[in-house]
Structure formats: C-alpha cells, structure tokens
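Re: the 735-residue chain
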Amino acid sequence: MKPSQEIKLSSADNILEIIAPGYSVNIDCPNLIAKVKKTGTTREFLNFKINGTVRPAGNGGTTPLPEGGTYTYSSVSHKKLKENILVEIIMKSSTGIWPEKKAVMEFFPEHFTYFLQVTGRDSSPQMLYDAYYGGTLENNQIHKSKGNFEELFHWSPDGLQLLTSEFNTALVGLGASAFSEERYEGKDRDQSYFYINYPGKPLIASYVIAIRNGGDWFGMGTIEMPNANHGLEVEISRHEILLPYTFGGCLQASSRTPCACPRLAFLFEKSKDRIMESYKERLEEAGLVKEQKIWFDWWSKPIYCNWADLQYRKVIDRKFKAHVRLSAEYNNETYLNELIGIIKEKDLPLGTITIDYGWADYMGDWNPRPDLYPDLRALIDRLHSEGFHVLLWFAPQLVEEGSKLFQKKDLLVKKDADALSTRTLWLGMEAGYPDFTNPATREYFRERLHFMLSGDPGCLNADGLKFDVPFNAPTIESIYFDKSWGGGEVYQYKTQKFINDTAKSFKKDAFIEAGPANPMFKDIADVCRLNDATSDNLYHYDIRAWAANVSGAPVLEGDDWRSFKEYFYRLTLNKAIYSIPSLYGIKYRALTIKDIPNGGNPVSISDEEYKRVSAILKVYLHSPLNPHHEVFIDPFRQIFFRKYKTGKLKGFYSCLGLSGNSALAAYSEEKALVTAIKDIDIVLPLPPGRTAEKVLKIFWNKEENQEIPFTQLKGKIHFEAEDSGSTVQYYEVYY
C-alpha cells in the first residue's frame, strides 16, 4: 500500500476516528452511530445506525418475529492489518432473541465494508427472516439512518436516476427477481412511496447504487450473492435511508454457529461511473466474478426470432388487440417456412433462428405442439442442412396449469404447509414455480434439456435456448424442499447456472441467451440479451446496452422487441457495433407503441429498408462481435465502437459508427468494409502504419465492382458513400 493510501485510526472513550484517503468515519460506539464524510469536506454523507435490526423467522420462515429486547453497546475491538483496519462492535441484550449482535466494519483506502452477525441463545438453529441495515425497529416503527441525498443513480437500465425530494421515498430492489408486492403491500397506493424500477426485468441488475450529496458521490453495494429476495434493496428519501434484506428462513444462527448477514460496501469516488468500476473491483478481489470459458464462432452470427412477426400477424388478422397468448397459433411450421423464405429472398445474412413462445404444448412439459410442429426434429435437421442454427424459447421457472409437471406437487414450490402450489399470472394464465432445490426437479429438467438439445434419436437436436422470464420467480418466503440449497439471489443464480451447465453437458456448443448484467451472474449464459424495449425511443436500446456493458455483462445480444419501424435499420446499425444484432420482425414492423399493448400498429417493410439491413449485417459479419473485442458505448453522445483485444490489430477498431452513425465500418487485417444508410461523406480511420491501396464500390445487381477515388491524410481516408438502400451494398477498402 502506498504511503499516501495510509489509513489512520485514533480512539478515545470508545469513539473511533478512521481517516482514509477517500473518506473519514467517526464511530460513536456507545450510541452505535457512524458519521461518514468525504475526505476534505465538512458535509456529512451519512449518519449510519450500525446496530440495525435482525428479525428471526417463524412459521417455517414465512413470517417475521420480533427481535425482542434492547441491544446496547458492550465492547469494541480493533486491529490494524496489512492494508486495512478491522473494527468489531459487540451489542448485547438479556431478553432479545439474540444474546449477542456484532457489527463488523473493515476499512480500506477508498471504501469500507459492514455486516451484522447474530448469535443464537441455544444450540438449536434459529431461522432469520430479515435484516434492516441502517435502521432500528421499535414498537413496529422503523427509525432510519439520516443523511442528505440529492440524487440516486442505479444501473437497472430502465430507471437510471432519480432526484430525491422531501415528500417521496423510493423503493429500489436490485437483482434477478421482481419486487415482492406482499412486502410493500399498500405502499404502492401511498403517494409517499413509489417504485423506480422493475427489478429483474429486463436485465439482472448489479447490487449497487450511487448517491450524490452536493458535488460528491458515494455508493453502496452488496459484496456477495445473498440468500435474500434481492441483492440490494433500498428505501431512500431526501434525508433518510434504509437497506433491508429478506432471508425468509434461508439463514440460521445458533449459540454454536453465529450467522453473518450480507456484506455491504460503502464506496467513495469522484463520479457515479467510478462507483460502478470500484464495485466491480471489489467483486474481483473477492473472487466473485466468473467468466464463461468457451466461445463458438456461430454464436456471433445475427439472429432472427419470430416473435414480432407472430404478434403483428395476429393483429392484422384479428383486427383487434387479441391477447398475446393467441399468437401461439401462428407459431407453426408453415408460417416459419414463409418467414425463412423472406430471409433468403431479401438476402438477410441471419445465421440463427429462434422459435419463440408457443412451440411447446405446456410450459413445464416442453413437448412440441403436434398441430403446429408435427415433426419439429425433422424441421430443425432441415434448417441445419440449410446452414442455420436453431434456438428454442424456454421459461423453466414457470409451470403452466394443465401440464403434467403441474400435477407433480412435490416438485413445485409451495405456498403453505398444505402443499398448495405458489402461483403467478403470466400472459393471462396461472402458472406454478418448479422447486429447483429438489434434486428430483433438477433431474426432471435434466431429462427435458436432453430431449430439447440432444441429437440422440427421439430428441429435438436444437442448438440452444432463449432463457426467458427469469424475473418471475417465487419469493424467498415460499416453502422449498431444501432452503439450504440457496434462496433468493442464490436460488436464481444456481437455477440459471444449472440450466446453462446441463445444456452444455448435452451439447458442448449449446448457446444460452439470458440477461446477466450482473458481474456475479456472468457465467450463467453466453450472452446478455438486452430484452424487450419498453418504449419506442430510438435511444432506448443504446442506453440499456450502455448500462449492461458498464455493469460487466458478457457479450451483448441486441434483441428487437418491440420491432418498431424506426428500429429496423437505424438501430440495427448501432447494435451491430455493440451487440450481436437480432431481428424479431422481418415481414412486419410497427409504427408506434401507442394504444397497442402487444407491439404496435404493423406496417410492411420497404425494399430500401431490407437492403440497408442486409448491408449492415454483411458488414457486421466482416468482423463479428466476440469476447476478444472491447466495446465502448456512449449513448448520450451517440459514440459507439469496439476494438480488438488480441491479434495484429490489437488496440485498433474492429467495428465503429461513422458520420453520426449513418455509416458502419468493420475491419479485418486486410481490408475494411463500409456501408451507409444515406448518401454521406465518409472519413475512415486506417490501422496504424497502413495506407489505403484502393476502394471498391460493391453493387446490389451483381455488376462489376467499381474502383472509386479517395483522398488520404494522417492515417485516414475520405470518400463519398451512397445509400445502401439504392444501388450500392457497401465499400471495400484495401490497405
């Protein structure tokens, strides 16, 4: 540790003063308060209640019991280690459920960590229901920590930031699951409370927030994957903050085995962007970031998913807003063959076909509907022979009523001891939740995955899965077969990891799409699918891609639902830079989201638009995205590029947008390909030390390629490009 990074500790009368390069903390041990400041300022970030509250669980973990008693300061110990200072503050109660609570704080130069530990009164394990970090519960009233909070920012990308006010409390739940409405029953009807994001959809959010006080930023993030409903839950207003974790009986404490609640990090940086970088660094130091170790070239190919074309066909045929589930009747072999015919006719270089919701008889059983796909294995084998790979839509966390699995009550998550299944509504139908803590359930899904992915006789021989709807999961308070297997975020991670690893055991190159925009979920899928757009804002996906990218997601996959007309070639160009581009609507696109919940008012696609998209995808395939590229996304300035991390062009562009993202360029060692979506001047950077030899114009009508003039100056060339929607596909630049 550098001398300038030294942490100083002083103590007197059980008052500790920790002064670090990035912050200072005054700990009043008798009053159990930590006053936190940014170094060099007098303004306090936070008056943090370090005693907190840890409630035990009753009724099998589904209800909270009072903590009981009054916990008062007993003793403090501290020691200076190599790079940090460890402080342990013990609180005791003669009547409380826990005879001892301990607040453990560890101080580093730019951050410190905190967690609560409780000890049971006897050797019998006592389940934990929840913990309130920064809050004490007295007479059913929560007393929160105090501070001055002017802005909240988080990386769940459809609710990026919020200005706090005197009159509102924001409820944030970050992680893989949606909020439990039961936890905040009534608060959504209270005007003083509101949700600012829909956690778990569309992406698995990182467990970190950034808070601004004046011109200073600090952050809070969970440095582990907790057995809790959310990885990080926050209640925040202008002057108060509380961080609850709900365990629902997944954690236990006894006199012999104390229980440590989740470790929380307090981060101090110059900007909110650095808060995220610091958070990822803390996870890496803890060994919590894991990578997928393999990549197959075909995974980089552009993807077609038939979902939007199913929806728009339904809207056109029915002339009204039919329920989304009714689109399943159009998910049949005849219509799919028609759509694949469009791919070929319009020269769209799409390499992977995703057969979306509706192909299976029931969620849970996962057998092809014989009336829609009479021989799905034969269809998949035929598509393989035509050069395509095939993914199947898969929502393993839902079990549809009517399925055979739904009748196997011992394999489902229970709502109560009477073995009634926990249920949810999805697409207007009732569904249960499979209990992946049960080995028999995992064995059942192992057999189903073998059926879908294996090339063995009698199996479907698909190439991978579009893993969908993971956010619709049971709450941690539900009754599971084995809660020790893991609950909450751990349950979500282990379930998705099980699906990923089992799929690859049957097919090594099984391609798994999911939404892991959380560094700790990075190894549960091969790509992070950006998921459904919630508006027709042209920049929606750019912002979502930025949030996922800075959060440490794996390779991004673009998605395309809803498939707006404006998205078709303009956004496909951007996505070809920062993601594997995908198209969900190739027969129809939609004008707007307004008044059409199921996607928009569908319109046909013009020949010019088809040409532009075809040219964009061909240029993309000159340097397709893979893990060896470093992606840069700035949606606010509309700057996008990626660079090679290996090879002869290391450090130089593999793909970038030109001329205000009206053109796309992709590089290999020998040449660059450039295409434009309108007539425009091109200024193209050349790899270091290279000079351009010639520029060829490649036409659509197969006529002879034409060499065009260009000028060259200081490592760049300039030439005039024509709209690829007319007579020219793209340009080849040789160097």
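The CA atoms of residues 167 and 330 lie 49 Å apart.
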